[in-house]
Structures are given as C-alpha cells and as structure tokens.
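Saturday, quiet lab. Running sequence design on the structure tokens for the scaffold JK sent over.
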C-alpha cells in the first residue's frame, strides 16, 4: 500500500507521521477500502453521552493526544514496526 511521511515542524510531540493511501488500486485489483467491511456504527449517540455525563455530581475529562508515545515496545518486536521509504526526486502530490 502506498505510504508517505508527513512532516509537521510546528508539532511538539509528533513531528513525523505515516499516511497510508488505502484507496489506491493496483492493476486489476481492488483497493483496501473496497475490501473492508464497514460494519455498524460503534460510536455512541451524542444525546446518550450528554445524558450520562449529567447523571452524576462529578465528571472527568481528559486528553490523550500523545499517549501512544509512552507505549513501550519490547526490543525484539521493534523490527516489525519499521517502515521503508524510497527516495523520489519529484513527488507532485507530496504533503508539506
């Protein structure tokens, strides 16, 4: 599947992130998006969330923006989480 790196120098925690193109098709092949089953919606209805939020006297909210950076990966498993990049001289659709 085609992928590229998006570099955001203005970000503090995640300056580089991977972006995959799951809609790309090969010759005589379907895209990954076409092969995946969509399934039922798993997100709760917003009205249910609001009503439950008001149910108790105290509420708790949090932001886990950079939480994945704190996940430890065993040394022997790190080789399986690497990505390969091929340098291209010109990439017309490159995200800046």
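Result came back. Writing it out in full:
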């Amino acid at each position: 599947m085609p992928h590229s790196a998006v570099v955001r120098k203005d970000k503090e925690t995640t300056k580089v992130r991977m972006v995959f193109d799951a809609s790309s098709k090969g010759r005589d092949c379907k895209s990954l998006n076409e092969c995946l089953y969509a399934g039922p919606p798993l997100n709760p209805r917003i009205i249910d969330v609001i009503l439950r939020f008001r149910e108790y006297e105290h509420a708790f909210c949090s932001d886990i923006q950079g939480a994945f950076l704190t996940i430890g990966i065993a040394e022997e498993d790190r080789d399986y989480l690497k990505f390969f990049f091929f340098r291209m001289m010109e990439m017309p659709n490159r995200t800046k």
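Notes for JK: The mean pLDDT is 80. Strands lie at 3-7, 16-20. Ask whether to fix the surface positions before the next round.
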